[in-house]
Amino acid sequence: MATKLEKVPVVVIGMGWAGGIVSAELTKAGINVVGLERGKDRTTADYTMVHDELRYQHRTELMQDLSKETITYRNTMEGKALPMRYYGTFIVGDGVGGAGTHWNGQTYRFLPYDFEIRSKTVERYGEGKIPDWMTLQDWGITYDEMEPYYDKFEKMAGISGEEVPELWGPRKNPYPTGPLVKTPLMKTFEKAAKSLGYKPFVIPAANLSENYTNPDGISRGACQYCAYCENFGCEYGAKGDPAVTVIPVAKQTGKLDLRTHANVLEITSSGGKATGVIYVDMLTGERFEQPADVVVVASYVFNNTRLLLNSNLGTPYNPKTGKGTIGKNYCYQVTGGTTQLFFEDRQFNLYGGAGALGIEIAEWMGDNFDHSDVNFIHGAGIRSTQYGDRPIAVNRVPKGTPNWGAEFKKQSIKYANANFPVKTQGASMPHRENYLDLDPEFKDAWGYPLLRMTYEYTDNDREMVKFMAQKTREIGEKIGADIIETAEEQGNFSVNKDTNTHNTGGVIMGVDRETSALNTYLQMWEVENVFVVGASAFPHNSCFNPTGTLGALSYRAAEGIQQYIKNGGGLLV
């Protein structure tokens, strides 16, 4: 039996980027918000002098406890799904800041092509370019409509970057801070790329290149290039993190009731509208019912989808009929086609770095090139990055080196600072049989069904990888490494081996309630007082890290929630 609490105007589930932005915007507008976060509270004080690779990288200090809740996974609809027992591909954040605490900080805008992808693809190539299996659809919003929200997110987070070529969408304002430093590794890539006619640019970063004070008055110091970004919190506060940007702003208003160790189990509803949430105190096991006028679901992609399905909100997607929307268009990201370089007589300081330190070219992104003679749509960026090679996790050695023993040690030492990748990060198009639903067998520690993921790389992915491998190898050969190794084929997906963490879809946006779960304010068509904010809203995944677009949509959702409250209800248009 849950203890029923006093009703509140808004309850926000999850206090990462999406929940933090929504909470900050609503509380600044004078709206009382209850923020529920299943992990603990965190500040920069938690990370002082904790460059502990074993604790954070390998023992996943900042991540969800898989012994209590995980996902199940299978490659095909005919296969049996089994639980993910240890972290590989998916590292779901836990605690205030969520994935916004342990992310690397690469902060892009999606292309104008992305938001109108079906229309623009058909316009240029015809309907036949889109395979029958590809459930591709426009987002219901244009880049020009998104631009002010991108600008707001970038100014809040202090994104460091440089103006990019005409291959990107137009900007009304420059990045608030300049680009990160160009290391010798980046200059090597830059020289080779320019010699081939490309226009390389420094990756836009939430790792501050200089001291910065944002429009909310939050001041943060510059990045120290310590290399402890991905899977770590930033002790300097230099990495954009909800816990050091938007959440303090919400707290300062006095309008945010932040409850930590509060794990939401389900959303309650009656008469076609949500009435609140049921959550469990993770420390005591006590259950509470929190009534609310508006429920904002702002957790990770998997958790957003699972919570709606376990709460019987929205229509579950059926891959056999194509009907329903909750669980539809789950997408990942494609990173095959990398060329790894090894040098006999060149050294780089690879143990220094930052989560978004790198350089990239845009010529093979989106529809920036003619796809008439290739068997795929969209594309990939080609980049070299210098995150910082920490000693336990990173031992790059040429193919054929033993996995352990004296020779492995010898080669690890020899190439420790004499290698770098020319790698890709490609878009992921939706497949009608790549989706999320509830597992019929496995349950979590509280008796609720786990989320089941059905996913495999598509023909579009495999053709893209073959194409991009040629381009990365060309750059590698121009650099002139002694050993050049290219991954020319995309293997099968493995939940415990693939390492990209960019998941999208499951509760997608659009303008047609038959094919989308949300409108462009991320308001549910079927349950008007529920807003589902996060990368779960993306109808496909672009070739970029998703956080910049997630942040922009969060600002738009916050605007919509305020309008919904002001109007006294109703669907927004």
Automatic annotation (TrEMBL):
InterPro entries: FAD/NAD-bd_sf (IPR036188), GMC_OxRdtase_N (IPR000172), GMC_OxRtase_C (IPR007867). Keywords: FAD, Flavoprotein, Oxidoreductase. Residues 133-331 form the Glucose-methanol-choline oxidoreductase N-terminal domain. Residues 430-553 form the Glucose-methanol-choline oxidoreductase C-terminal domain. It holds the Pfam family GMC_oxred_N. GO terms for molecular function: flavin adenine dinucleotide binding; oxidoreductase activity, acting on CH-OH group of donors. Belongs to the GMC oxidoreductase family. This is GMC family oxidoreductase. It comes from Lysinibacillus telephonicus.
